[in-house]
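Weekly sync, protein design subgroup
Attendees: M.S., D.O., the rotation student, P.L. (late)

Item 1: inverse folding check
M.S. brought a backbone from last month's batch and wanted to see whether the design step gives back something sensible before we order anything. D.O. pointed out we never logged the input encoding, so this time it goes straight into the notes. Structure tokens as presented (320 positions):
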């Protein structure tokens, strides 16, 4: 029995055990990673030597921003070929016009005109091919500085890695810069096989960090692995987390609460605050009257953030 003064002082409250909808929560931990769909590796398409590096780690870039400039003999040779072919094409075009004029005056033959037209067509095609080759190598067809090329960012984001320095020789297989868009991040979660079956793509996930547990971000499940890890008996669940503010950092540990949509059910439940551990057993206090209670051991089922399923020990309608 509880004295009225004591019950008032501790703020004793009662509620009725009732059948309600329970959305169980799966608690797991994970580590933030870059969104692999928002990361870019920038490198040279040809061999060359770095002339100037224009960014450092942490620099914010937009698409097309120059990261570094390079010198390449291969590119210079391809650009020089444009000037050579362009001169031949101009001469062939002029010769074609001259032969046409001579044909009108009855001085040149039709065959001479046809040959001039053929030569003009061939040189025009060679000029287009030469320009396309320079573009394929990453150069500028209009650049008069032969052999110079720029490495540019293909996406907007932050420079997270700089792998080159001035004067360094670079091969096509080498990654010079890594650019990442941190507006969204990934969390890979390992969920045990008994819980992963109820999780679906699109399920809501609440993410918080141990440093700021009160700041909760909402993400969504985008991928559920169909293969279980043979050692841990868990499956990977990937979550996309918004990070427009930039507060989250790659490598940071997070706590995740997944709300599996497939496991929502109607069940007898009581508030989580009504549960206590007595001698290691989950216990609720059933109200006999206004100021007296009886402790009763219960068997728990599914749990959500605020309520817990009671499988046995309490019946619907009883006050706890």
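Designed sequence read out in the meeting:
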């Amino acid at each position: 029995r509880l004295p009225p003064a004591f019950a008032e002082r501790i703020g004793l409250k009662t509620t009725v055990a009732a059948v309600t909808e329970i959305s169980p929560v799966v608690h797991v931990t994970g580590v933030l990673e870059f969104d692999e769909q928002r990361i870019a590796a920038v490198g040279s398409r040809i061999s060359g030597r770095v002339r100037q590096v224009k960014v450092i780690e942490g620099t914010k870039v937009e698409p097309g921003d120059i990261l570094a400039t390079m010198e390449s003999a291969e590119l210079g040779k391809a650009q020089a070929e444009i000037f050579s072919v362009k001169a031949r094409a101009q001469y062939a075009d002029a010769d074609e016009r001259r032969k046409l004029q001579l044909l009108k005056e009855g001085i040149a033959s039709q065959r001479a005109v046809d040959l001039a037209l053929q030569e003009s067509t061939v040189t025009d095609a060679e000029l287009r091919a030469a320009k396309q080759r320079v573009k394929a190598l990453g150069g500028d067809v209009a650049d008069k500085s032969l052999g110079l090329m720029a490495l540019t960012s293909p996406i907007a984001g932050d420079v997270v890695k700089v792998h080159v320095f001035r004067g360094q020789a670079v091969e096509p297989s080498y990654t010079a810069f890594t650019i990442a868009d941190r507006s969204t991040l990934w969390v890979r979660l390992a969920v045990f096989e008994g819980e992963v079956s109820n999780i679906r793509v699109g399920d809501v996930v609440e993410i918080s960090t141990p440093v700021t547990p009160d700041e909760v971000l909402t993400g969504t499940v985008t991928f559920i692995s169909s293969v279980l890890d043979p050692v841990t008996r868990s499956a990977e669940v990937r979550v996309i987390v918004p990070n427009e503010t930039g507060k989250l950092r790659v490598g940071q540990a997070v706590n995740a609460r997944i709300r599996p949509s497939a496991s929502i059910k109607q069940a007898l439940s009581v508030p989580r605050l009504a549960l206590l551990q007595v001698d290691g057993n989950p216990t609720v206090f059933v109200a006999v009257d206004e100021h007296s209670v009886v402790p009763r051991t219960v068997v728990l089922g599914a749990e959500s953030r605020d309520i817990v399923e009671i499988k046995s020990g309490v019946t619907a309608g009883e006050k706890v």
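Discussion: The chain has four helices and 21 strands. The two ends are 14 Å apart (CA to CA).
Action: P.L. to compare against the previous round before Friday.
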